[in-house]
Amino acid sequence: MRYRSQFPLIILAAVLVIFSLSCSGSGNPVTPDSATQTGTTGNTDREASGQYLWGLYDVYIDSDTGEVEIAPLRGAMFEANVTKFLHPPISPINMLSIQVLPGSDFASGYLLLNVSIRHPFPGTNLRGFDVMGIFMPPEGGQSLQWDPNLTWPDFSGDNPVLLNADGYTRWWNQPEFTSYDTIFGYTNGKLAPGGFTSASTLNPFKYFADGMDPDTGFSSGYLNITDRGTFDTVIPGINIREYEIQFPVGPSNPDFRFKYAISACYWGPDGNPAPPAPVDDFPLSANRQEAVCITPTNGNSTAFYENESTYGGDLNFSLEIYDWQGMTQFSSAVPEINGIYVESPTLFDGVIDVTEAGIWAFEPMSPAASLCDITIQNVAPTSVSDQYLMIIVTSEEPSDYSVQIPDVTEFDYPTDAVLAAFAVWDVPIASLGPQEDLPPVADASLSEPHEGTPPLVVNLDPSASYDPDGIIVMYEWDIENDGSFEYTTFAPDISTHGFEDPGLYEVQLKVTDDDDLTDFLDEPLLISVIDDGDPCEKGPNLICSGDGNIFVDSYVEEYDNAQILRNIINFDYGLPNSSNQIVKFYVGHGCNHNNSPITGKVKPIVEGEGWTFVESDEEPIDTEGCRVVFVHIPGKSGGTPFTEAEYEALHEFLIEGGRIVLTQEYSDSEYVQAQGNAFLQGVGSTIVRTSNSTGYQLITPPNECEAITDGVEMVYHPAYTSFDLGPTDFSLVDDPNNGWHVLVGGWIK
């Protein structure tokens, strides 16, 4: 691909310990000091690439206890001033954590794991792109005909296999990337007891990017929501992916050892932006140079297997190839592709170059994606299952795994290897040969999600449906399985439906082919919308008060103000933040409202209830460990507004079971009013402040989950009776010096 900048080798040498660097791609590292302080980079006029090895690990899972042992393999420490990155809190071993999930079966060698990767440089401009978590088994098993030096863990049962791989990569395999004790290599550390060398040279990976859930599929549709496949440095900087692994079962217990490598691409942002720089500041050279995603989709294949003597048919499929570099001066990914090859251990002999005439046809889909329609005639399946197709997409430029830095030659890499992206496809094979007027097959298995809380938006995806002897011409969705179809399409497009009410829904799919034959799902698609309870019964998670003194002084006649505070800090939504211990009074961003008198009286009440009281002015605001955050808006003398990132973090804090109390005086300036409204809107509230003859007021449209106030009285929605904040109608003291003191609550989703 194309490069735009360089970096001094002395800087690179200092960073290698931080990244465990060993590779190519596109990027410019930074000095250790800038990584921890400013995150800025220095660009010069030479070109360089940056595919980096963030970490290499031995992983051992104890089948008796379920405990996971992660031992890092890492290189020598070149610079004393970067050794701090090798230890907590930014330690290679802490970058990676693995959780064994329910559904795992140790006896059969089947494990379902959540793998968490923490960005090693939070708060900097060292944003990662196209991060891969690479699974490395002890042996390869199957050799490629395209390149016999490549071995991959096939599905024969003799090797551990990643059943839900997002792709395969040659990067960082141990037999070929062996630049020990150099700035472009790594040395196996002595911290790995019982370590082994993985002999596999083509290994499966899972793709880690912001916006992807642990069990999210991998396709161009999901890449579009990841903001160029970025791994942000904004704290906590954690992404999680689900690994489904089958280990071989021998005479004794399965051996749950494997190696794990973390690979990332990087190139510094344009200019010298303050960290963390937005994605748009990073050039496309920060992304992976070879294709990032290869998605095969079955077409009108006629491939079948009935028995050892009756099999055959044609394999017809579409291949979507996603390459970020196609977004440069090209209109599609095609100019970035040098070649496309396919091979199979069972379906046909040899290696097929699909760019030959009559086999393929390209159709640009977007600047980064192209669709390739492929036909392979007269295939020879050996079964209806385990018929795998290896897909190889080679890169036009760069075309090898060398370091893209002039005059650097000491990096050991597979010199004869062609830079490529790889995918393995489990080809669907029919159990019957082509019949006259065979019906289509309805398949809704790609629809997701199947479960969640309302409103639950489900993508109804019929694209796995097929017709063995023709084409499907109509797709119909019956949301309530009552014979009435709510959605009809004439292509396998996704239909989106929102389920508002809790319950178990049976969704039926009907497909019709060009012979007017139809098929329905054998079993309806089950959608479970879980009732997470009436938020009104739990009390609001956002409370707006006037003056914070309402909790400690005598602004409410004949009522114990301290009890109001106790009721606000004692709650349980049954969500993670509800079990936290900290009640924080936040006074950052220039807040100067009479904080000391308030906190002096509030602190003993909070601690008397068994919680931890913290007063803080850190910027940005930090909600970690908090159950309640009291926020004071900047006062008349000014202050700095909250950032969008802070609003996002506060909104996440609310929906994960926390509570926010916003305090400010109504008689303050229009500046304070504007700041208050900005805060409320930033965290997702419909509550606003206005000014009228009675002074500044909090106003919200009444609905089933929000209380209202007229600025003179506290008025609560009847559903708040169980919230027990006090009487539903009681007067407030008219204090001309401090304004009206009111309390209003809302529920933020």
Count of structural domains = 3
The chain-level structural class is mainly beta
- Beta-strand share of residues: 25-35%
End-to-end distance, in Å? 44 Å
Rg is 30 Å
Averaged pLDDT, please? 75
Shape: globular
The total of helices stands at 9
* Helix proportion: 10-25%
Low-pLDDT segments, ≥5 res: 1-49, 74-92, 181-193, 554-559, 690-741
Work out the number of β strands.
Answer: 42
Describe the main β-sheet briefly. Answer: 7 strands, antiparallel
Task: Outline the structure in words.
This protein has three domains: 9-426, no CATH class; 451-529, Immunoglobulins (Immunoglobulin-like, Sandwich), CATH 2.60.40; 535-746. The protein contains nine helices and 42 strands. Helix 7 (595-608) links the parallel strand 33 and strand 34 (612-616). The longest helix is centred in the C-terminal third of the chain and has 14 residues, at 595-608.
Q: How is this fold's topology laid out?
A:
Elements: H1 9-19, H2 32-37, E1 51-61, E2 68-73, H3 92-95, E3 96-100, E4 110-118, E5 128-136, E6 141-143, E7 151-153, E8 161-162, E9 167-169, E10 203-208, H4 220-223, E11 230-231, E12 238-246, E13 257-265, E14 293-298, E15 304-307, E16 310-312, E17 315-322, E18 337-343, E19 351-353, E20 360-366, E21 369-376, E22 388-395, E23 420-426, E24 451-452, E25 456-460, E26 472-478, E27 487-489, E28 495-499, E29 503-513, E30 518-520, E31 525-529, H5 535-538, E32 542-545, H6 561-569, E33 582-586, H7 595-608, E34 612-616, E35 626-632, H8 644-655, E36 659-663, H9 670-682, E37 688-692, E38 695-699, E39 708-709, E40 713-715, E41 729-731, E42 743-746
